[in-house]
Write a structure and sequence with these properties.
By secondary structure, this protein is mostly helical. The protein starts with a helix and ends with a helix.
Length: about 375
């Protein structure tokens, strides 16, 4: 009986040693604040955490991520990129020094690998593709080693998953250069590892869930699968307007036009109730896609209020949509029997034909019909 007891205890500790890395509750709470677009609360929490733990790379990684999400939702067009990169660099410096003193320590190996991941991601955002690729290669090496040491360290899976997925989906112009660097990937493996990171508890679980929605939607144009992950994000984080916006965009790209208006209506209602939680660009897009959905169904006059709102919010930052709005206004004038006003709008589409060739194709056909 005593022998059985010792065997049981030994097995218990072996089983739990596989998941020895515990998620710090402060970091988990901060990540949840970030993903629910409560940026001030997340920043205050992380500033306190960093003050108490100045050498812990994770405080800086999550603070950089919080700032990055803040500029995404507030549509700041990369104005805070350097601030984000500075936090990621500090995290990477601390992580490297700690790993360098204890290179077999799996916690330090994974933290270093993840710090490389976020530095690489931000360099990619800033257009430095070569630098990002070289840094990501360092990340892969550390994470592959860590997973061999402990296959249940799910905080290493996101990095390896992203590396494999995007290495397998490089544009043709970069594939030769990547092969020279020894960069290659397996898409199926990448998606499976990201899914593990999204479903198993770890500090990067939120990032993994979002990246799956992005990988399926933006990269693979598999919008139904992207919607599955977005639904999970919206249920968990109902104050994040970005997720609502992308859900509506996906619906439009799927040709689900009634669903587009429903999704974008949800976003507009949210923005009306919480105006500080939405950027004007999000409200513009919600109105634009709602209008476009009616245009696609040839229900031209139903698009009028959405076109008017989109025109009022248009800042020309999305040049193809600015051109499309002239097409939509021309179609509305035509539907109202105002031939000259319609032709004037179609001429404006011609002026921007290089920015939106498909709108110009439609405008030409409409001009010909009006001039017959």
């Amino acid at each position: 009986m005593k022998k059985f007891f010792y065997v049981f205890v030994s097995l218990f500790f072996l089983m739990h040693a596989q998941n020895s890395w515990a998620i710090d509750p402060v970091l988990k709470k901060a990540s949840d604040f970030t993903y629910n677009a409560h940026f001030s609360e997340a920043e205050a929490l992380l500033n306190d955490y960093i003050a108490a733990n100045p050498l812990d790379p994770w405080g800086y990684i999550l603070r950089g991520t919080n700032t990055d999400w803040k500029q995404k939702i507030q549509n700041l067009h990369g104005k805070l990129d350097n601030q984000v990169l500075d936090d990621y660099k500090i995290a990477n410096d601390h992580a490297f020094q700690q790993w360098d003193r204890d290179q077999d320590n799996i916690d330090k190996k994974i933290t270093l690998g993840n710090s490389y991941l976020y530095v690489s991601k931000k360099w990619l955002d800033m257009g430095r593709k070569t630098r990002a690729g070289l840094i990501l290669k360092k990340c892969q090496r550390h994470m592959d080693e860590a997973i061999k040491q402990d296959p249940n360290r799910f905080d290493a899976y996101l990095a390896v998953g992203l590396f494999n997925f995007y290495a397998a989906n490089l544009p043709s112009g970069l594939q030769f250069f990547a092969s020279l660097l020894g960069i290659s990937g397996n898409e199926t493996k990448g998606l499976n590892m990201m899914n593990k990171a999204a479903t198993e508890p770890n500090v990067l679980q939120n990032d993994a869930l979002f990246m799956l929605s992005y990988a399926y939607g933006h990269t693979k144009q598999n919008y139904p699968l992207s919607q599955n992950y977005l639904r999970q994000l919206i249920m968990r984080y109902p104050d994040n307007s970005y997720f609502m916006m992308v859900r509506g965009e996906n619906s439009f790209k799927m040709g689900a036009y009634e669903q587009t208006r429903k999704d974008m209506g949800t976003l507009l209602n949210f923005c009306n109730a919480k105006p500080d939680s939405c950027a004007p660009a999000q409200i513009f897009l919600a109105n634009f896609d709602s209008a476009a959905s009616y245009i696609q169904q040839n229900n031209i006059l139903a698009a009028v209020p959405f076109v008017e709102k989109a025109v009022a919010l248009n800042d020309n930052s999305s040049s193809d949509k600015a051109v499309a709005l002239h097409l939509y206004q021309g179609l509305i004038f035509r539907a109202k029997g105002k031939k000259q006003e319609a032709l004037a709008e179609f001429e404006k589409v011609e002026d921007g034909r290089e920015k939106n060739p498909s709108a110009w194709d439609r405008a030409q056909k409409e001009q010909q019909l009006l001039e017959q």
